[in-house]
Design goal:
It catalyses: 2 H2O2 = O2 + 2 H2O. This protein is an alpha+beta fold. It contains 16 helices and ten strands. The structure holds protoporphyrin IX containing FE.
């Protein structure tokens, strides 16, 4: 078809065409498509004169180059990713109406991104840090983003602490040093916020430096809600279990590897056809069980610093995902991918966990800043629903998909269609208000149970020794003795043995326990005579 209309239609090329074309198929042009014989042809006044303002080709080149950087992610800036697919192996229509879990063999495309947390985009892949583990499931009913970490718990349960905590993981505002050189801020925060202890134990233990991204698990950490077609619902914790197993690298060995170790490992495995896979598993809790767990065991489903005991709430497999395709263009497909815990689909709802609730807001907010208001229009972020979708969002920067000529308001002349809501919003768990929801930062004796189990039951003696070495090594870089004394007191609440060993190595005597300590305005529930 050589008509002008066909010619114009062909110009609205899709990303997929560009992605597949090789340089040999392409003719060199300026950004407006005008062919230029060679890129090294700057226009000058005469043989040796200054450059000409009319040389759009050179100005086009330089001015685009000048704008190549977008802000890096404020956290999780260093990352790697790949594409693949999810397959449902054990459907759960009785638990959720999410279409992707409705039938055995049901598949959807996925994009995953793994990351370290605190470092900048050029930082070392083998930093001792939690790892991000995000997966975008492009389901028939919209994109569902699992924005997980490789640890089941987190440092805090009060979202207001997040920027404070993260700032202590970043460069010092005065010295511009990171905690690799000066750990004073790092320990200052942790020694003032003891609810971080479980995550600190994991961080300083073997799991603090996973052996690349393929050999680690992912955890929702937060409780989510699965809602079925009858509006019955359960709380869920989601686990991604690495089918490669897990592996770790010691602190000493980490220095021997390339800063891009995990990127290389993931990329090369996929190029070699050794596709990494994870199972998707869930733990569930009914609202009634959640109330009982709080009443009898002090387990609060909204508390991200705690796990659900697996003996009581066993895991159950629902599917698997495989990463079998590397990005063709890292920037377009991985740097610009935008995950959000609020990108949910019918059948999956957030719980009232305050940290999750804050995240629902924070991610799209940062995407609008980092990528732009129309970030969802980028090919890697655009939903691929099983139906034509649309809404009334129009215009804004870079609106290249602006919903054509369809009505931009709720029109009676050109009406849009609606799908009935599948969730009865009245059936929420409004009665469950555990105390920790109000006193987000209260420290309780239960906060030390899981870390104690790690030390006493999960780790063997060499793992304990590595932990003491990692902690004491990090403490050597702390300039304030008082901070060390407090942090040792927190470890003493986990197990006397940890405190004694640290005291021996650091030469610093920690406080007896935390009952008499004050924590930056937090309620210390370990102090007997303080009343709420
Ligand atoms: C990235 C905020 C807690 C997992 C980010 C980003 C922000 C953010 C602003 C950068 C996103 C971007 O630029 O694309 C917060 C806030 C939190 C919080 C405000 C608490 C109040 C958590 C928790 C988890 C988590 C608890 C895991 C359970 C991630 C991951 C990424 C990320 C995996 C990287 C996403 C990617 O690969 O693009 N977070 N975060 N965050 N966060 Fe959080």
């Amino acid at each position: 078809d050589t008509s002008f209309a066909a010619h114009v239609a062909n110009q609205f090329t899709s990303y997929e065409i560009d992605r597949k074309s090789a340089s040999g198929d392409v003719i060199y042009t300026t950004s407006n498509g005008a062919p230029i014989p060679h890129p090294y042809e700057s226009q000058r006044a005469g043989e040796n004169g200054p450059l000409l303002l009319q040389d759009f080709h050179l100005i086009d080149l330089l001015s685009h180059f000048d704008r190549e950087r977008i802000p890096e992610r404020v956290v999780h800036a260093k990352g790697s990713g790949a594409h693949g697919f999810f397959e449902c192996t054990d459907p759960i229509p009785e638990l959720t109406s999410a279409d992707i879990f409705s039938a055995k063999g049901k598949r959807c495309p996925v994009t995953a991104r793994f990351s370290t947390v605190g470092g900048e985009s050029g930082s070392h892949d083998l930093a001792r840090d939690p790892r991000g583990f995000s997966v975008k499931f492009r389901t028939e009913s919209g994109n569902w983003d699992a924005v997980f970490n490789n640890t089941p718990v987190f440092f805090l349960r009060d979202p207001a602490k997040f920027p404070h905590f993260i700032h202590t993981q970043k460069r010092d505002p005065a010295t511009h040093l990171t905690h690799a050189d000066d750990s004073t801020m790092f320990w200052d925060y942790l020694s003032n916020n003891p609810e971080s202890i479980h995550q600190v134990m994991i961080l300083m233990g073997d799991r603090g430096i996973p052996d690349g991204y393929r050999k680690m698990h992912g955890y929702s950490g937060h409780s989510l809600k699965f809602v079925n077609k009858d509006n019955d619902w359960v709380y869920v914790q989601i686990h991604f279990k690495s089918m490669q197993g897990t592996g770790f690298i010691t602190q000493e060995d980490s220095a021997k590897y390339s800063p891009d170790y995990s990127q290389k490992d993931l990329y090369e495995a996929i190029e070699n056809g050794d596709y990494p896979k994870w199972t998707v598993e869930i733990q569930t809790m009914t609202p009634k069980q959640a109330e009982e767990a709080w009443e009898t065991q002090g387990i609060n489903v909204f508390d991200l610093t705690h796990i659900w005991p697996q003996a009581q709430f066993p895991r159950r497999k629902i599917g698997e995902f495989t990463l079998n395709e590397n990005a063709v263009n890292y920037f377009a497909e991985i740097e610009q991918v935008a995950f959000s815990p609020s990108h949910l689909v019918p059948g999956i709802e957030p719980s009232a966990d305050p940290v999750l609730q804050s995240r629902l807001f924070s991610y799209p907010d940062t995407h609008r800043h980092r990528i732009g208001v129309n970030y969802v229009q980028l090919p890697v972020n655009a939903p691929r629903t099983g139906f034509r979708h649309g809404n009334f969002q129009r215009d804004g920067g870079m609106a290249f998909y602006n919903q054509g000529g369809r009505s931009n308001y709720l029109s009676s002349i050109d009406p849009i269609q609606f799908r009935p809501r599948s969730v009865d919003l009245d059936k929420t768990h409004s009665d469950f208000t555990g105390r920790a929801v109000t006193f987000l930062s209260e420290i309780r004796p239960e906060d030390f149970n899981a870390p104690r189990a790690l030390w006493q039951k999960v780790w063997d003696e060499p793992a304990r020794e590595r932990f003491i070495k990692n902690v004491s090594g990090k403490m050597e870089l702390c300039k304030k003795k008082e901070i060390i004394r407090r942090q040792i007191a927190i470890f003493r609440e986990v197990d006397e043995d940890i405190a004694t060993r640290l005291e021996k190595v650091t030469g610093e005597k920690g406080y007896d326990g935390i009952a008499n300590l004050e924590f930056n305005g937090i309620y210390n529930g370990m102090t007997k005579d303080v009343k709420l």
